[in-house]
Design brief:
Blueprint lengths: L6 H15 L6 E2 L9 E5 L3 E2 L14 E6 L18 E2 L19 H9 L2 H20 L4 H4 L17 H4 L5 H11 L5 E6 L2 E6 L2 H10 L17 H4 L7 H11 L5 H28 L4 E4 H18 L13 H10 L3 H12 L1 H7 L6 H28 L10 H15 L16 H4 L14 H30 L4 H18 L3 E2 L1 H6 L1 H13 L5 E5 L4 E2 L6 E2 L4 E5 H5 L18 H4 L20 H16 L2 E5 L24 E6 L7 E2 L2
Parallel strand pairs: 2-4, 7-13, 9-16
Antiparallel strand pairs: 1-3, 4-5, 6-7, 8-15, 10-13, 11-12, 14-15
Length: 673
């Protein structure tokens, strides 16, 4: 029907359309503005029109209006009922109105049409929703600003905070925190966000001393939360226990890591070191006098053998049979960073509660079941030996000198009767500064409530925490000693080892290892440059006021120190990227603040296995340098070293390859019985 200039035509059109509305149907159409062109198509239903809705044609030029493709569903006007409205010219008022009747009631379908029928409305809603979501996700990131703490200039990313690259596997976690450390500039501390969790990154040595040592009771716990119901063996491990439970377990375990125990374990370690020498000797002989070896994998097998022998009293032979050794397989499973573990780590940082709700755990069932069953058998075996010794006399249990035996002996006999004569030591409870920290009380901690799972958790953590970290230390030590200025240092260390062994009667003894001062400095310098675990963190258990400020660290806030960045801080260690063991000479070491060098942590929660790791590393390196010469294989080792981004322990992408040949020996050695 042509649209005329008079009102009657408009009324007729209204009446024609209105008749459909009288039947109680809803008529749907779009809001639209017509462009200045001849034909416009309006398609699709968008919303139920209320009574007296106006459709405005805001142009005076002739045009054609076609309403088509209306949704043909119940309650809506069919497209077939809408005829061609023809064409016409609007009169003077720049438009005309069409009143369309609307039936009673509303529908969810109609409301959906209102919001999603028009692309302009849809886009507007999407923009508003995106803005609201962004604001919600960014809301945790004003935590430090509200409390007056300095912040980084780097803006946090929603969900990921300042740790995006770390969480998606594009950056090694210690490198991520070291980058933030450097970005803080001259600030003593800055507020950062690990995921959406607030974390105070500390650079000032005096504040670190307060947190890790003087106020250790306020910052007793590590920051990560592992639920015991979901992942019991990880949660019950010493490093993950909290509060009083940690204090009691630490007090129980400390007697197993004294110098007396280490001296007693030295023959077990030396047997593994002898296997390492035989392994290298065989390869050198087969390759015509010089072998090329990827050193990290060899040291992983060596460390696996040492810990299996010293912790569980078994010979797993990982050096000679790495593919079939069950302990070596478990070691690989423990540190294999699968997709599941990557997700678990991300959730551990982002939302521990969500991790618990999903029932995800870091440990895998295969390794957990293996260690649980293995420890059960070892415990039963040692309990029978101790009972037989007590009932029948003799020394049935004397064959055991391992970690499991020590735990079982302490549990059954107590501290006073759980130490052999050959393990007695003046520092029986001195390990790791425990007496200074107040970690031990006059009363011996009770073993009554210690379950098999508790013992399994400690043995499993001893294994997982020890074998790759020590292998990493030995690998980087030989890397530095095999290139550049390190070659000369290697020669000097070998001469020192040979001299001390002669003084000890041709034996490698526990006291002799302590006399190898250059060897010790080499290991310290290696730990400074390549700390195997690059992060220390603590959780505030109560409100803490930073000395000399009006700032408060609230209960539940995390505190973190990035070790690689601190260990390479030029203000602490001049020429920090140079391998220089002499910086740990006595006259130089006294110039270094002790809190600035923390490869094993600080305070009561420092690494309980520090003495064990140091003994193993000294013995392994001394034994090798006494017999072999090492040279960096530049054809296979990529320089400068690049490091794995998705890893829990520091490691190189391409490995460390060394050329090995026999050293001219002037003495033979053996280990003290």
């Amino acid at each position: 029907m042509p649209l005329s200039r008079n009102a009657n035509s408009r009324e007729n059109l209204c009446g024609k359309v209105g008749r459909y509305g009288e039947e109680g149907r809803k008529v749907s159409c779009r809001f639209f503005n017509f462009p200045a062109r001849q034909c416009t198509r309006v398609s699709g239903a968008s919303f139920p029109l209320p009574p007296s809705t106006q459709i405005h044609l805001a142009h005076e030029k002739p045009l054609t209006l076609i309403l088509s493709s209306l949704e043909h569903t119940r309650g809506l006007l069919s497209a077939s009922h809408v005829s061609d409205l023809g064409s016409g010219t609007c009169n003077g008022s720049r438009g005309f109105g069409v009143s369309i009747g609307s039936g009673s009631g509303t529908s969810m379908e109609g409301q959906r049409e209102f919001f999603f029928g028009d692309w302009r409305m849809t886009c507007t809603l999407l923009v508003v929703a995106a803005f609201a979501l962004y604001h919600y996700l960014m809301s945790p990131f004003d935590y430090w600003k509200k409390r007056g703490f300095p912040e980084l200039a780097i803006r946090p990313v929603p969900i990921f905070g300042h740790t995006l690259k770390m969480m998606i596997g594009q950056q090694y976690f210690a490198d991520a925190f070291s980058e933030l450390h450097r970005a803080a500039g001259e600030k003593k501390y800055v507020g950062i966000y690990v995921g959406n969790q607030p974390c105070l990154l500390v650079k000032d040595l005096d504040i670190m001393r307060q947190i890790f040592i003087k106020e250790s009771n306020t910052f007793m716990d590590r920051a990560f939360e592992i639920d015991e119901d979901v992942d019991p063996l990880n949660a019950k491990g010493l490093s993950n226990l909290k509060g009083q439970r940690w204090k009691e377990m630490r007090a129980r375990l400390s007697p197993t890591f004294t110098s007396g125990r280490m001296r007693a374990m030295l023959p077990l370690m030396q047997a593994c070191a002898d296997d390492l020498v035989q392994c290298f000797s065989k390869q050198v002989e087969e390759d015509g006098g010089e072998a090329t070896v990827e050193i990290k994998e060899v040291f992983m097998c060596f460390s696996t053998d040492v810990i299996a022998t010293c912790a569980f009293g078994v010979q797993c032979d990982a050096l000679n049979n790495p593919e079939t050794s069950k302990f070596r397989q478990m070691g690989k499973l423990t540190f294999q960073l699968t997709l599941k573990r990557t997700i678990v780590i991300a959730l551990l940082l982002f939302s521990p509660r969500l991790l618990k709700w999903l029932g995800l755990k870091f440990s895998d069932d295969e390794s957990s079941n293996f260690f649980r069953e293995f420890v059960r058998r070892m415990v039963e075996q040692r309990e029978r030996a101790i009972e037989q010794e007590e009932n029948e006399g003799g020394e049935n249990a004397s064959q055991y000198r391992d970690f499991i035996y020590n735990l079982v002996s302490l549990k059954k006999r107590g501290l006073k009767h759980g130490v052999r004569k050959d393990e007695e030591d003046d520092d029986e409870l001195e390990a790791l500064g425990s007496s200074k920290s107040g970690e031990h009380s006059a009363e011996e901690p009770s073993w009554t409530n210690v379950s098999l799972d508790d013992l399994t958790a400690q043995a499993m953590q001893f294994f997982s925490a020890g074998f790759e970290t020590t292998a990493t230390l030995l690998s980087f030590a030989l890397f530095e000693l095999s290139s550049g200025e390190g070659v000369g240092i290697q020669r000097r260390v070998a001469e020192e080892v040979e001299r001390v062994v002669k003084e000890e009667g041709g034996k490698i003894t526990y006291e002799g290892l302590k006399k190898m001062h250059l060897l010790e400095r080499v290991l310290c310098e290696t730990l400074r440059l390549y700390p195997p675990v690059g992060l220390l963190n603590r959780l505030a258990l109560q409100v803490y006021h930073l000395p000399g400020t009006n700032l408060t660290i609230e209960k539940g806030a995390q505190v973190t120190v990035a070790l690689p960045a601190m260990h390479r801080d030029e203000s602490i260690f001049p020429n920090p990227n140079r391998f220089d063991p002499d910086r740990f000479l006595p006259e130089n070491k006294q110039k270094i603040d002790q809190i600035a060098f923390l490869p094993f942590g600080a305070g009561p929660r420092s690494c309980i296995g520090q003495r064990f790791a140091q003994t193993q590393a000294r013995l392994g390196l001394a034994t090798l340098l006494l017999r072999f010469e090492f040279q960096l294989c530049r054809e296979k080792t990529k320089l400068p070293l690049t490091f794995k981004k998705r890893a829990m322990i520091l490691g190189t992408d391409q490995g460390i390859w060394l050329n090995i040949k026999l050293r001219n020996q002037t003495s033979s050695t053996e280990t003290e019985p």
